[in-house]
């Protein structure tokens, strides 16, 4: 519903890319080394990894995500988070803190904004 709402508001990228919340992951490129990182925030934990089969309990490197502090969210991030809470969607609100938080590349250790990596990938 959030995706439909912001699509009607003309927020193109997030109107199309919020579905990653339902999938519990995003696949993004590291802005430093271009390694493909899976940003997971669901039943398998909240981490970044370069292993596409992370759900199979592999020995792959998994780096914990750094969620945004909900009280510091601004703009679209704050609106989405507040809307999710107002609608009783606490799980979605929690996931949004990871989407608008930071990740560390499992390949080169660069720390980057998850949201910026998502928009960069899909803005091309």
Explain how this protein is built.
The chain is an alpha+beta fold. The protein has six helices and six strands; from the N terminus they run αααββββααββα. The strands form two sheets. A four-stranded antiparallel beta sheet has the order 1-2-3-4. The longest helix is centred in the middle third of the chain and has 12 residues.
Fold topology:
Elements: H1 2-8, H2 12-17, H3 20-23, E1 25-29, E2 36-42, E3 45-49, E4 63-64, H4 75-86, H5 90-99, E5 102-104, E6 111-113, H6 114-123
Antiparallel strand pairs: 1-2, 2-3, 3-4, 5-6
Helix pairs in contact: 4-5
Summarize the structure.
With 124 residues, this protein is an alpha+beta fold. It has helices at residues 2-8, 12-17, 20-23, 75-86, 90-99, 114-123, and strands spanning 25-29, 36-42, 45-49, 63-64, 102-104, 111-113.
- In angstroms, what separates the terminal alpha carbons? 25 Å
Strand numbers in spatial order across the main sheet: 1-2-3-4
Content-based structural category: alpha+beta
SSE topology string: HHHEEEEHHEEH
Radius of gyration: 14 Å
Number of β-strand runs: 6
Mean pLDDT over the residues: 85
Sheet with most strands: 4 strands, antiparallel
User: With helices defined by DSSP (H or I, 4 residues minimum), what is the helix count?
Assistant: 6
Please tell me what the overall shape is.
Answer: globular
| Range of helix content | 25-40%
Q: List unreliable stretches of 5+ residues.
A: none
What amount of the residues lies in strands? 15-25%
């Amino acid at each position: 519903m959030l995706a439909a709402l912001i699509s009607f508001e003309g927020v193109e990228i997030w109107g199309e890319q919020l579905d990653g919340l339902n999938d519990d992951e995003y696949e993004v490129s590291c802005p430093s080394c271009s390694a493909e990182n899976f940003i997971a925030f669901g039943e398998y934990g909240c981490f970044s990894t370069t292993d596409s089969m992370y759900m199979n309990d592999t020995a792959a490197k998994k780096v914990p995500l750094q969620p945004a502090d909900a009280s510091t969210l601004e703009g679209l991030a704050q609106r989405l988070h507040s809307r999710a809470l107002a609608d009783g969607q606490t799980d979605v609100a929690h996931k949004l803190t990871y989407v608008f938080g930071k990740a560390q590349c499992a390949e080169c250790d660069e720390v980057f904004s998850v949201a910026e990596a998502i928009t960069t990938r899909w803005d091309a």
